[in-house]
Amino acid sequence: MGWTKVLAESELGDGDRQVVKVEDRKIVVLKHEGKIHAVDNACPHLKLSIRKGKIVDGAIVCPWHRSAFD
Known about the structure:
The chain is an all-beta fold and 70 residues long. The chain is built from no helices and 6 strands. The protein has strands spanning 17-22, 25-32, 35-40, 55-56, 59-61, 68-69.
């Protein structure tokens, strides 16, 4: 898979996050300290949404078991 435009950078304020669908996957796109990050929205262990996880050093921390993804 190459790059896929899912939203404009201006649609995200710092600290914002949005879930977008790319093909058959849900991706959480977030802006942290001016940088855009995108990761799969499903925790690989429990398959639950990580959208509401805390952001630590640019990685999103799973609210269910505390693993970090970047």
